[in-house]
Amino acid sequence: MDGGGALMDLFAETWQYLLDADSWTGGGGLVARLLEQLLLTATALAAAMLLGLPLALWLGHLGRGGFLAVNISNVGRAIPTFALLALLVAADWPGSSDFGPYGRAGLATLIALVLFALPPLITNGYVAMREVSTDVKEAADGMGMSRLQRFRRVELPLALPVVASGVRLALVQVWATATIAALVAGPGLGRIITEGFARNDYAQGMAGAVVVALVALVLEVAAAALQRAVDPMPSGPSPDRDDGLSVDSTSVAVAPTGS
Amino acid sequence: MTILGAADSGPSCYSRFVNEWFCWQYVEDRQGQITDALVEHVLITLSALALGIAIAIPLALLARRVPRLESAVLGFSTGVYTVPSLALLPLLVPFTGLSAATVVIGLGLYALTILVRALLDGLRSVPDDVREAARGLGYGRARMLTRIEMPLALPVAMAGLRVAAVSTIALTTVGTLVSYGGLGDLISHGVQRDFRAELMTAAVLCVVLAVVLDVLLVLLQRVLTPWTAGAR
């Protein structure tokens, strides 16, 4: 793959592949794989939020379990997604069998996705609650709010932007992990890439990569817009809050966790 | 960890029929293969980190001077970080082919995005008082940077380096797409052949490698910034 001519040829072939209607339709086509991966991503993110957010918010509210909540992201980062997926697929349970609309090795993939979505959700959820200033909490107590009222009407709205940035991190993580699932013959768009490489059809591999990357960027932009939308103080006292990925790099995960 | 030495006559613990997850016999028999994969893994990781650091430092210093460049750099790093590794590697293949360079450049890009952010955060964390005091003592721009700002930015920058190092170790496994994944190649082979001992050994080694590198970086930070010892 050297020389400018070969390079241009590959780009031309990739473009051809993307323009060809046959690449999009059919059982293993781009549309089917895209839907498969979007379904996986949505299910896993929803499950992780249901599991992780209540726990993280409650721990943050109580101010307990901080060591665990902050370090779980570091642990998650050290475990390669590929290795965990491979272990789940090779195990007798959940194995690599079909799982409804999620396709081959769908259950193993879902479990891995949920596990890798949890660390950013838990860490950000916890930090978000802890960062609500003590003055504000005391003021709420002084106004005679009960613990539950304080949690729902004061702490939660103020914590929401940082929680949302955790959801955004988790979304990126889940999308990346869902792509890697293809390396262990799992479902999703990554299959287009791995099948292309396995057959030395690099145009197909490139085309799959382009679609995966574009959808990832679209999801990220949408999540960023959502994050801005839930901020109760868009031009509030911390202007650097929305400078990208997360609260601040010293306390919270701002990195691709092994994906 | 169970170490199941095979009986003299029975099948070894990694034979097709037994297929144990943990099997010391496998590690002994395939020592050479495992060492090769481990060395490749470490070399790819260190090269990617070196590449990331080499580009991140001048880029961060430049971005600090030019505010417009800073937002461009931060936007670019968010973009790169968003692209999954399995999609980033194929996009590099037309330029670098199926080589270790593809993996090193891809992972270097991810490391770069983390490091630039950390460096900018670190430089921003230097108190203005300190800068003014240095200026009052007659420090010029270059001396201020090397003697005052860089050392004070080091703790935050090192935290970023630790994050970059640990995630690069994990990400190197994905390099198996172009057959340069270090331990990832063993994982890939293990999952294709349903070879559990190979799979588990490689996975455990990845995590061990990440922990070892992280500990080394913590020690390095202690040596470089002795004044933070009590504060952390």
UniProtKB/TrEMBL annotation, chain A:
| Regions annotated as coiled coil | none
What membrane topology is annotated for this entry? Multi-pass membrane protein
Identify the main location.
membrane
Where would I find the ABC transmembrane type-1 domain in this sequence? Answer: 34-223
Signal peptide residues on this chain, from the entry's feature table? none
For this protein, the parts annotated as crossing the membrane are 38-60, 67-90, 102-122, 158-185, 205-226
From what superkingdom does this record's organism come? Answer: Bacteria
Under PROSITE patterns, the record lists: ABC_TM1
Q: Where in the cell is it found?
A: Cell membrane; Membrane
Checking InterPro entries in the record gives: ABC_transp_perm/SBD, MetI-like, MetI-like_sf
Q: Does the keyword Membrane apply?
A: yes
Q: Where is this region: Disordered?
A: 230-259
Q: Keywords, A to Z?
A: Membrane, Transmembrane, Transmembrane helix, Transport
Keyword hit for Transmembrane helix: yes
Write down the Pfam families for this protein, in alphabetical order: BPD_transp_1
Composition bias type Polar residues, residue spans: 247-259
Say which family it is in: Belongs to the binding-protein-dependent transport system permease family.
- The protein's name is ABC transporter permease subunit
